[in-house]
Predict the structure.
Amino acid sequence: MTDSNALDPEDRKIVTLARSARARNGVPEGAAVRDETGRTYVAVTVDLPSLHLSALQTAVAMAVASGAESLEAAAVVTSAEAVREGDLSVVRDLGGAGTPVHVASLDGTVRLTVSTG
């Protein structure tokens, strides 16, 4: 388990944003990413009949659509034990190897931080 208080304040912020989005929309996951300029993108699970995206995939897509060129960090709030490899791949695609992905429980407690490297 990672001590949430040990996180950088900007990383704590994306965890809080992800948690709030998940709770507000009543979906399984919320995610947030921070790009190279410090802008944040917040998203939730998309589950439509013809489109299924995890919250992290949606947040990365939003960053790309807004012109982000790289990512500094990502956070996902989920009841799952770990982040899926497909989610790590999309973060790696934009963020490169070594981008931290903070995985938090539904109460916002960061359980682990995974590097995309």
